[in-house]
Amino acid sequence: MTRRKIPVTVLTGFLGAGKTTLLNRLLKHPAMTGTAVLINEFGEVGLDHLLVERLDGDTVLLQAGCICCTVRGDLVRALGDLAQRAEAGQEIRRVVIETTGLADPAPILQTLISHPLMLTAYALDGVVTLVDAVAGDATLDTEAEAVKQAAMADRLVLTKTDLATREAAAALEGRLRILNPVAPVLRAMAGDVAPEALLGAGPFSTEGRIPAVAAWLAAEETEAAAHAHRHADGIEAFALVFDDPLPWDGLATWLEMLTVTRGDSLLRVKGLLNIAGEARPVVVHGVQRSFHPPARLAGWPLDHDRRSRIVFVTRNLPRGIVEDGLNAFLDAARQTGILKRG
Known about the structure:
Blueprint: E1 6-13, H1 19-27, E2 35-40, H2 48-51, E3 59-62, H3 72-87, E4 94-98, H4 105-114, H5 116-121, E5 122-132, H6 136-142, H7 144-151, E6 155-159, H8 166-179, E7 185-188, H9 195-198, H10 211-219, H11 223-226, E8 235-242, H12 248-262, E9 266-273, E10 282-287, E11 290-291, E12 295-296, E13 308-315, H13 319-336
Parallel strand pairs: 1-4, 1-5, 2-3, 2-4, 5-6, 6-7
Antiparallel strand pairs: 8-13, 9-10, 9-13, 10-11, 10-12
Helix pairs in contact: 4-10, 6-7, 12-13
């Protein structure tokens, strides 16, 4: 008897588009029972796997690089492991791959549609790309990865439409329809999209798409492409980790000052924080000059050490400048008694 192939959905979108928020909402639907999630992050410390609230199934962090550059082998190994578990009887009904916001989707798709493992155990169910309604237009102007993510989607999801003007959202939607004539454009409020609107979009095809899509995939067939470094010079990802609880007022002021003075260089900021006086972890995230209100999680992730972690993805903003600025704030805070040494 031939075993049913496991459908794979690729969830992508540029930094800050809301992938983790949407994934959390999706996984609460009964239709997503038995879903395994593979999460890739760009940088030395991952946070998204801690922010995905799982009800069942597996969450695997593909770390130490970008999925389109250095960890494609990790992706194949993770999928191979899941296929073995399914063969042994574990219920794995679907796989969702959440890519880093800097991922070029072409090498990922080339791997998923041509690797022998994919041809035997999996079926590419579709590519879902999130586009930020506020920052999306400027991002498409400047980021080649964002253009590819939109052009290669089977479903386009416009996020943060409540923060954008009606005219700006409509103009961006029109631009996306030209860039990708085959993908429906959906709108999501706080990541709320029904699974049936996103799933079952495959199999992936270049038919009807702009000619560049086929060219991008063809370029990935060479061995050299598999090892290519894909990100522009000046982009850096790093994490700052703090053992002691942080004072919210001072930290918020420092982040605000950073966004005002260097906002154009902040591609992404995401933090899981232990805030003084708070029993629950606080999540902060922002893109360039736009920060979302902080959110409190229901509780700390299992076995978490409760140290604060803030991940930055920057362009032409060295780690030293960010780290020195925050350390100067912490020293001043200690001297004034706002933050006591642990």
